[in-house]
Design a protein that fits this description.
Elements: E1 10-13, E2 19-22, E3 28-30, H1 43-65, E4 75-85, E5 88-98, H2 104-117, H3 119-124, E6 129-134
Parallel strand pairs: 5-6
Antiparallel strand pairs: 1-2, 2-3, 4-5
Helix pairs in contact: 1-2
């Protein structure tokens, strides 16, 4: 049995040169194409922000299962590439984790397990190239 926990709702007009607003008004952004001089953000940046937030939460869950705490200064720097190839446009990603004060091997283990749990990681599994890095 599945239970919907939350549904994010947005309305977007104008595509990459438009605007997007959430149904509750908490998100209200101007959009512009990647690399343009437009004033807005782009879908790749929004995707990177969402994924990194979710991924850090997944690391926290994995850490708590091992009776560990994620450092307050932990950071996930997510890079989303928009790539043009023979199939058209595709995405690829790098999730760069910084978990200060955690042994590098343990940090790598936490990141790998979080990648199995994070809903964004599950949604992209087998669909785009994803590189996991631990600094």
């Amino acid at each position: 049995m599945s239970t919907v926990i939350y549904t994010g709702k947005t309305s977007t007009t104008g595509g990459r040169d438009g605007a997007s607003r959430s149904s509750d008004g908490r998100l209200d952004v101007t959009l512009s194409p990647p690399g343009s001089s437009g004033a807005g953000t782009n879908p790749e940046q929004l995707f990177a922000a969402g994924w990194s937030a979710c991924f850090l939460g997944a690391i926290g869950r994995v850490a708590s299962e091992r009776r560990l705490r994620v450092p307050a200064d932990a950071v996930i720097n997510t890079e989303i590439d928009l790539v043009s190839n023979d199939d058209g446009y595709v995405l690829q990603a790098r999730l760069n984790a910084k978990l200060p004060g955690i042994d590098p091997d343990l940090a790598k283990s936490l990141v790998e397990r979080a990648h199995q749990l994070c809903p964004y990681s599950k949604a992209t599994s087998g669909n785009i190239a994803v590189e996991l890095n631990v600094a």
